[in-house]
Every structure is written in structure tokens, then in C-alpha cells.
Amino acid sequence: MGRSSFAFFVARRYLFSRRKQTFISVISLMSILGVALGVGALVVVLGVYNGLTTDMRDKILGANAHGIIMSYQPSAFQRLPDLRERALTVPHITGATPFIYTECMISANGGVKGIVLRGVDPATAPEVVTMLGKLRQGSVADLQRSEGLPGIIIGDELARRLGVVMGSRVNLLTPSGKKGATGYQPDIKAFEIVGTFKTGMFEYDSSLAFVSLDVARSVLGLPEGFLTGIEITVDDLFRADIIAADLANELGSPFYVRHWMEMNANLFAALKLEKIGMFILLAMVVLIGSFSIVTSLVMLVMEKTRDIAIMMSMGATRRMIRHIFMLQGTIIGLVGTLLGYGMGLTLGWALRKYRFIKLPENVYTLDHLPIIITLSDVLIVGASAMLLCFLATLYPARQAARLVPAEALRYE
User: Fold this and answer.
1) Secondary structure, 3-state, 253-280
2) What is d(CA 117, CA 138) in angstroms, rounded to the nearest whole number?
3) What is the C-alpha to C-alpha distance for residues 260 and 66, in angstroms, rounded to an integer?
4) How far apart are CA 7 and CA 320, in angstroms?
5) Can you say how many angstroms the Cα of residue 217 is from the centroid of all Cα atoms in its chain?
6) pLDDT value of residue 411
7) For residue 231, which of 240, 223, 239, 221 has the smallest C-alpha distance?
8) What is the bridge-based pairing of β-strands 111-120 and 208-212?
């Protein structure tokens, strides 16, 4: 029998063949359960974090593009009307649509509200701003009307606040008015609601509205061909920064490109910090389980002093004795980690399938607890648990290997 086989054989016997050391067995069981609970909790909580972050990212990108082409000179877009087609020739750019951005006031019988008004191209906008392809009511094509009042699309929350429905009339007060004898007079334009949307993000649903590009220029008194920028989509969200840099190099001055990671950097940095904090907090549960491993092994060393002395007298080296107790702690950690995987993955599957934890829609961006468990998170949790359990074995194993056979057997 080789050294490693001998160490594993003895470690397994000590763990699973005890008859008299019931108390030590209970401590070992508690160690396994402590590790399992920590691993299971980490798997579920990180899965929920991933679900919430992904849902928030999808909602943000549903109302915004992956990147925006801007210019230091507002008239640059008028001089280069084919800029959208040029952008689409750059590798990894999958869509592009022009837009106009401004802020104004909207009024109806229900009151007045400040909003962000976006002029879009009804033909190309749904390919880039996915929210416009999933309206709750109406269609983005209705923005391009030839008869009646110009159309406008607003969020559900804004419609509720103003007390309006599909077909209602609203007025936009824009900053393009003129100064008259009685003072500054804002320009007031009437619109008809032709669509509503709901993203689940209160900021968007309560303060965002869409009109067509031509109407936006007319309302704001802008020249033909004027644009605020061009929104783009890419084929890989997580390479948006690299693709944006390539696009900026292709277009050259005076254009520059901003991507979604840059524009939402503060939000996602805060979420990432929260994930690290949750990981550290729940890793403490695994740490408590590893402390139980220390207790269990120290008591076992005290109980098996005579056995250790006999094995060393028969030729077992200090290294072999050390390996026996390190293997015991590692086995406890492995069993606890596997059990935690089973608990965490089962609970995660149940949460995803049955959605039995409901969330208030007026507080959160969705009505159930989302969960996305990734392989990388599962492996990191398992590796962290095993590392803590292994470190917990070092002191007891070292103490066992330091026993002097003659001293240990003197009082037997």
C-alpha cells in the first residue's frame, strides 16, 4: 500500500468507522452542514444577483442602444447624411438609427410633467431600441402619420399620471418659443397618443416619450437633416467598448462614440461591489463550518494519540500522519461542498421554474425573483469553500505530526 493510499485508508476509517467517538462524529456532521449551508446560500444569492443585474441591464438596453455616435460639431451630421450607412460597414455593428434628444414639458388635463423627448426614425429605430418593437399598445409606425395630429408614444406611468389613454390629446411645451411683448412665450404643439410602453424602470416609464424625427425637428425649430446622434447595436455586448473604439477610429474627427458600459459605469460598479460584499458575508458561513473542522480534528488528534504513536513506531512518517488529518478535513469540505451544490442548485431550479417568491411591481422592475446561476460562480464558490476547509486542517495536522511516540505511549 502506497503512502497516499495508506493516508486515505486511515482517514476514511477515522471518519466513517467510529463507534465510541459519537461526540466527534456530531461535530464533523455539523462541519459538513455548515459548509453545505454556506455553499448553498452563496450559489442561490449569487444566482439572484446575476438575475437582477441581467434584468436591469436588459431593461436599460431595451430603452437605449449599445452605443451612441456623437459629434463635437452639431452640424457634422448634416454634412455627412450617409454616416449611418458608413457605421453599418464597420465589423460587429448590427444596427444603427438616427435620433434627436431634448427635454420639454408635456401637459394634459391630469397635469404637467417634464420629460425627455426623443425623435426617432420609425423604420430603423425598432431594430436598435428593442423597447419600440414591444409596445404595450400601438405601433412605432404610427408616429409617421400623414393626417391629423402628429403621434407620440409615452410610458404607462406617464400616461397614468397625466390621466390619458390611447387617442388622447396632449400638448408639448418646447424651449423653441419666442420672446414677445408680454415676455417669453413657449411653443406649444398638440399631439395624439398612438402608443404606450412599459419597461419596468420607473425613470423611463414616467419621463420618456418618442416622436418621429421630422416632427422633433419641427417642434424644436431645427434645420433639415439635424441629428443629436446615431444609436448603434453590436453583436457582443461585452465587447462594446472595443467595437466603439474601432468605430470611432473609422469615423474620425469630429465624431466620437460612447458605449453602454461607459454611460452606466457608476450603476454597474455599485452592483459589482454589492456582489463582492454579499460573497464575503456569506463566505463567513463557510468559515464557521471550517472552524468546526478545526475543533473536530483537534479532538480526534487527542483521542487518537495512542494510534498515532503506534503508527509512527511502525514506520509511518510525520508527513504521512499530517496527510491523514489533512485528508480528513478535505473530505469533510468536499462532502459539504457537494451537498451545498445540491441544495443551492435545487433551490435555484425551483425558484426559476415555479417563481414562488413574488415581488411588488411598484417597487422592483419585475414581479418575481429572477435567478441565473453561472458555471463560473459555481466553480468560484466551490473553490473558495474547499480552500477554507483545507486551511482549517493545517493546524490539527501539524499538531498530530509533532507527537513523539515515546512520550505519547508513556502513560498508556
Assistant:
1) CCEEEEEHHHHCHHHHHHHHHHHHHHHH
2) 18
3) 5
4) 6
5) 37
6) 56
7) 240
8) parallel
Pairing status of strand 169-180 against strand 208-212: unpaired
Pairing state between β 229-234 and 255-259: unpaired
Contact 24, 300 (CB under 8 A): yes
Is residue 38 predicted with pLDDT exceeding 80? yes
Distance CA 27, CA 20 (A): 14
- DSSP characters over 103-150: EEEEEETTEEEEEEEEEE-TTTHHHHSGGGGS-SEE-GGGGS-SSSSP
Q: Is the peptide bond before 150 cis (omega within 30 degrees of 0)?
A: no
* 200 contacts 366 by C-beta, under 8 angstroms: yes
Q: What percent of the chain has pLDDT over 70?
A: 90
Alpha carbons 303 and 228: distance in angstroms, whole number: 78
CA distance 50 to 43: 11
pLDDT in tens, 7-37: 777 776 766 655 455 656 677 788 888 889 9
Instruction: Tell whether the torsion through CA atoms of 75, 80, 83 and 85 is positive or negative.
Output: positive
Q: What is each CA distance from 383 to 273, 283, 315, 394, in whole angstroms?
A: 20, 12, 34, 17
- State which amino acid sits at residue 240: A
* Cα–Cα distance for residue pair 242/58, rounded to 1 Å: 20
Q: List 118's β-bridge partners, or say none.
A: 101, 210
Tell me if 92 sits within 8 A of 241, measured CB to CB. no
Is the separation of the CB atoms in 261 and 65 below 8 Å?
Answer: no
The amino acid sitting at 282 is: L
The overall pTM is greater than 0.90: no
3-state class percentages of the chain: helix first, strand second, coil last, to nearest 5: 55, 20, 25
Backbone angles phi, psi at 7, to 5 degrees: -65, -40
Residues in the chain: 412
The vertex-256 CA angle with 244 and 240, nearest 5°, equals 15
Which amino acid is residue 354, in one-letter code? Answer: Y
Between CA 134 and CA 199 the distance in angstroms is: 9
Cell of 259: 458605449
